[in-house]
């Protein structure tokens, strides 16, 4: 059975393709690293921050949490609302109480959040990181004037590339620790990630035979293997690999952005199930999503039901919560979102007919 999911696969365009939306940035403002966690680690190792205190959302991925934890920073959390926006009142209170050196705002699921409002609540010298890891390069960025100090993009989250993170430094005084060009563990990681992408592509385009489901399982195995290797080697920041650069430059970014946005529009038009609540908003801007987010108290039942039809969404729960249990009640909305969100497939490898089938099955879901 052919899988309808968010798994990234290899998709190479014959021509070199530019990155849309970034033309106004000077080359010196753009720095490439192997991954987002390596980029943040390079900043923490290179820049002389005074208080070593950071303000993070309570629902935060390991890739953001890990660098601060490894460098022994004081981590202060802020709550979210039920849609994944920052609790601005809580941000203001914590910014006043702890005077953080850094803060991170995440455009969760690819939904644009109010970065300007959060920036206005922080100390003047606080370095704000705007995390676009759940989106990808698009024309909307060309007209966006970020109020942050750093913008972070993570192409492997949405694209068929082995590695890579782009940091756009909007402050000229920030210092980054020099990344390593090579290591043995890093090479093994890249091989496993490339194998995952290739096997994923084979399972996607040849998977009409049930026997080829082994390809999809193998792709998942290699992906998990690559993640374990990433955790072992990323104690030192590395550069963006040559194979990753080549794959990124041969990705049709315009097509990727357009396909993902058309698929999201289809969800808006056709998804009708009272058991689910879509949480996508375009109030502050419309950029490609990593998937179409909904909240439902029946997430486990929904995931099991869709899997019977070869449809696999995602729930960002593993390595997304680092607060002790006794503090959970202080962040009720972030905890609620962690427990109830579900991300339906949005992917450039899928057709609009595929998305229509997903929507049909979701609309038929009952408990």
Q: What would the keywords be for this entry?
A:
single chain, 367 residues, alpha/beta, 7-stranded mixed sheet, 3-stranded antiparallel sheet, 11 helices, 13% strand, globular
Side-by-side strand order of the widest sheet: 2-8-7-6-5-3-4
Taken as a percent bin, the fraction of beta residues is 5-15%
Please give the alpha-carbon distance between the first and last residues.
25 Å
Query: Helix/strand/pairing class, anyone?
Result: alpha/beta
Give the overall pLDDT as a whole number: 96
Give the biggest beta sheet: 7 strands, mixed
- Low-confidence runs (pLDDT<50, min 5 residues)? none
List the helices and strands and how they pair.
Elements: E1 4-5, E2 30-33, H1 36-46, E3 53-57, H2 62-70, E4 74-78, H3 88-98, E5 102-106, H4 115-120, E6 127-131, E7 150-153, E8 165-169, H5 184-206, H6 213-233, H7 242-249, H8 253-270, E9 277-278, E10 292-295, H9 299-307, E11 311-312, H10 332-340, E12 341-344, H11 352-363
Can you characterise this structure?
- With 367 residues, the protein is α/β, with parallel strands linked by helices.
- It has eleven helices and twelve strands.
- Helix content is 37%, strand content 13%.
- A seven-stranded mixed beta sheet has the order 2-8-7-6-5-3-4, sandwiched between helices. The protein has a three-stranded antiparallel beta sheet with strand order 9-10-12. A two-stranded parallel ribbon has the order 1-11.
- The longest helix is centred in the middle third of the chain and has 23 residues, at 184-206.
- 46% of the residues are buried.
């Amino acid at each position: 059975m052919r899988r309808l999911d968010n798994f990234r696969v290899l998709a190479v365009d014959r021509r070199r393709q530019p990155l849309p939306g970034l033309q106004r940035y000077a080359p010196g403002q753009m720095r490439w690293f192997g991954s987002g966690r390596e980029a943040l680690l390079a900043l923490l190792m290179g820049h002389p921050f005074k208080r070593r205190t950071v303000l993070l959302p309570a629902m935060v991925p390991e890739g953001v949490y890990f660098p601060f934890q490894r460098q022994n920073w004081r981590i202060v959390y802020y709550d979210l609302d039920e849609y994944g926006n920052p609790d601005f009142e809580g941000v203001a209170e914590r910014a006043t109480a702890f005077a953080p050196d850094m803060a991170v705002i995440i455009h969760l699921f690819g939904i644009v959040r109010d970065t300007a409002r959060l920036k206005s609540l922080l100390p003047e010298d606080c370095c704000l990181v705007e995390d676009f890891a759940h989106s990808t390069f698009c024309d909307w960025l060309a007209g966006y004037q970020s109020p942050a100090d750093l913008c972070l993009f993570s192409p492997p989250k949405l694209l068929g590339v082995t590695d890579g993170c782009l940091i756009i430094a909007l402050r000229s005084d920030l210092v980054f620790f020099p990344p390593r060009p090579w290591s043995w563990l890093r090479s093994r990681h890249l091989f496993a990630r490339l194998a995952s992408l290739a096997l994923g592509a084979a399972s996607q385009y040849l998977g009409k035979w049930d026997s080829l489901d082994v390809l999809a399982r193998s792709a998942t195995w290699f992906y998990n293997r690559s993640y374990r290797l990433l955790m072992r080697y990323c104690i030192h920041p590395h550069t963006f690999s040559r194979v990753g650069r080549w794959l990124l430059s041969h990705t049709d970014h315009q097509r990727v952005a357009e396909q993902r946005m058309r698929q999201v529009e289809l969800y808006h038009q056709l998804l009708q199930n009272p058991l689910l609540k879509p949480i996508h908003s375009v109030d502050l801007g419309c950029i490609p999503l990593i998937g179409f987010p909904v909240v439902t108290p029946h997430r486990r039942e929904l995931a099991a039901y869709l899997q019977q039809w070869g449809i696999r969404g995602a729930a960002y729960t593993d390595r997304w919560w680092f607060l002790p249990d006794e503090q959970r009640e202080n962040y009720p909305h972030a905890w609620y979102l962690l427990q109830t969100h579900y991300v339906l497939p949005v992917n450039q490898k899928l057709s609009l007919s595929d998305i229509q089938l997903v929507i049909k099955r979701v609309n038929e879901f009952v408990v």
